[in-house]
Design goal:
Blueprint lengths: L1 H5 L2 H8 L2 H7 L26 H7 L3 H9 L15 H9 L1 H15 L2 H7 L3 H18 L4 H20 L4 H8 L6 H8 L21 H8 L3 H4 L2 H11 L11 H13 L1 H10 L4 H6 L2 H30 L3 E2 L7 H11 L21 E2 L8 H24 L1 H5 L2 H36 L4 H7 L3 H8 L7 H22 L7 H21 L20
Helix pairs in contact: 4-5, 4-7, 5-8, 6-7, 9-10, 16-19, 19-21, 20-24, 21-23, 23-25, 23-26, 24-25, 26-27
Length: 537
């Protein structure tokens, strides 16, 4: 053990040739015995659970590790902390602290860069999986959080160092396009692609790059690997493949080109549909074109939301002709008290007390669907389909693990709920106005005296206050559209990272306000015990 810690290879080789070790070579799977673990007294400077191979891995001695591997030595994977097998129970019962430290020693050996390089067919994948396992242990084993995090960070640095050794773009592409997500898949993937010189086949172009290994790095939070200059350069090469001079263009030109692409999007889509492998089809399928068109489409969606709000405000000022038959001034006065209690005269001069008019116009909010709403619904259908495709590709667990996807879920649900409520309210409003115009001559008097339940039910949907939940849901969905989705788009602009940090806090305040304001407002949908005199039209 001392020779291993000092790196004395020749002394170690001579010791291993001793007859004692030669006899034990055929009977023991590893150097050292399990019984050493259960000794109460330890006179050695090395821990009793540390084997020579583990010590060599701790010291990152490549030549010594190779010697032990040639002898058939291995490092067994530790059991999970909650394992209830007899082996773990006995070790835990003998000394719990020693059992926990033994797991740390084993993981420190397994995470050694030299050991991973000599034993793994896919070192980067092995480091990814081990780093994720160590991160989970850091969350469960709170007492040794620091040690497990340091080991996890060591694995992340190892993958970054391996990527740093790439000398050309083909080697970087070969690493980033590996599709294996487990060691079994990595071994099966490596075998059929070995060329005659023992090296894997390398892609010649950037078309068809899957970047599965990069996606796996994002999934396992490998920030050092993703942010490495070689990785970022490869991504930039793919991103600007059809537009190599994009970065040198002036800012107004960068704004003008996406607008032209979005306006002519149906033409591009049709060409891509009939000829996806043509030159135009390849240009349309580039990430830059997809991102710019989606961004412009989303800003058009925000502009449509603004126009919808403008139309909603103008709808409040429209006068809807209710054609209320007036038998006497008592009915007219009751209508004014119910629909316009803040005035001592008829609303907006629509009715005149001096004459027995046959109709009266009151300011009721219009709840119909206009052409802006139809445009918004089409865009929402596209966004909903995009979320469905993302769930299909990633799966429910990975999809729900992202906070941005939860923002999209809330936003789409609020939009769908607001439009469903809007259609429902519009139907009820229309039925109430028809009842008011054709089937009742004393509507306001009956409502004021609570004598006609049918009239009361129809009056409930004539009040402006019933539209508050529709407006509230639409308001929150608009806010999530402007703040939530645009927050992660800020990440593409390095000069707006400070604004991104502020938006995180704003989104948190938004959700807290939503919980306090929206749910108590749901009582507007139940009209039991409502006082028509105190309700504004």
């Amino acid at each position: 053990m001392l020779a291993i810690s000092k790196g004395y290879i020749r002394i170690l080789s001579n010791l291993l040739k001793h007859p004692v070790y030669q006899r034990n070579r055929g009977t023991l799977n590893r150097l050292g015995t399990i019984t050493n673990y259960y000794q109460r007294i330890n006179h050695s400077k090395f821990d009793q659970d540390v084997t020579p191979l583990m010590l060599a891995a701790h010291c990152n001695e490549v030549d010594i590790i190779r010697i032990f591997l040639e002898r058939g030595e291995t490092i067994k994977q530790p059991h999970v902390p909650s394992c209830q097998c007899n082996y773990c129970k006995n070790r835990r019962k003998f000394d719990p602290l020693k059992h926990s430290k033994s797991a740390i020693h084993t993981y420190r050996a397994l995470g050694s860069p030299a050991y991973i390089s000599l034993t793994s067919n896919d070192p980067i994948l092995t480091a990814f999986l081990l780093s994720e396992e160590l991160s989970q242990l850091a969350r469960t084993e709170k007492e040794f959080k620091k040690e497990y995090r340091e080991l996890s960070q060591q694995c992340k640095k190892y993958t970054s160092d391996l990527l740093d050794m790439c000398q050309n773009s083909k080697e970087v592409a070969l690493i980033l396009n590996q599709e294996a997500t487990s060691m079994e898949e990595g071994l099966n993937e490596l075998r059929p692609h070995l060329a005659g010189d023992g090296r894997p086949d390398q892609p010649d172009t950037y078309q068809g790059s899957t970047l599965q290994r990069l996606k796996l790095a994002v999934r396992y939070n490998q920030k050092q690997f993703v942010s490495h200059p070689h990785c970022q350069h490869h991504l930039a090469t793919i991103w600007y493949d059809s537009f190599p001079g994009w970065r040198q263009l002036a800012f107004p030109v960068k704004i003008f080109i996406p607008l032209i692409l979005y306006i002519t999007c149906p033409v591009w889509a049709f060409i891509y549909w009939i000829a996806p492998t043509s030159r135009i089809g390849r240009v349309v399928s580039t990430p830059l074109v997809k991102f710019t068109t989606q961004t412009v489409a989303y800003f058009c969606f925000l502009a449509a939301l603004f126009l919808q709000s403008v139309f909603a405000d103008s709808d409040q000022a429209l006068l809807i002709d209710c054609d209320v038959p007036i038998q006497d001034n008592e009915e007219l006065a009751a209508c004014d008290r119910i629909f316009c209690p803040e005035y001592n005269k008829s609303c907006y001069g629509g009715c005149d007390y001096s004459n027995n008019t046959s109709s009266c116009r009151y300011d009721l909010r219009q709840t119909g669907i206009n052409f802006v709403d139809i445009f918004i619904l089409i865009l929402l259908a596209g966004m909903f389909w995009g979320e469905v495709k993302q769930i299909w590709m990633e799966g429910w667990s990975r999809y729900l693990a992202s906070g941005w996807n939860w923002i999209d879920i809330f936003m789409l649900n609020l939009y769908i709920g607001s439009y469903c409520a809007k259609v429902f309210t519009h139907i009820k409003n229309t039925n109430a106005i028809e009842y008011l115009n054709t089937e009742n001559n004393s509507f306001c008097v009956d409502v004021e005296k609570n004598e006609n339940q049918v009239a009361l039910d129809h009056f409930y949907f004539l009040r402006k206050g019933n539209y508050i939940n529709v407006s509230l849901m639409f308001m929150w969905s608009e806010y999530l559209s402007c703040e939530g989705r645009n927050t992660y788009r800020v990440a593409y602009m390095d000069w707006l990272h400070g604004a991104r940090c502020g938006r995180y806090k704003v989104i948190g305040i938004c959700y807290r306000s939503l919980g306090r304001c929206f749910f108590p407002g749901s009582d507007h949908w139940s009209h039991g015990g409502a006082d028509p005199k105190s309700t504004h039209a």
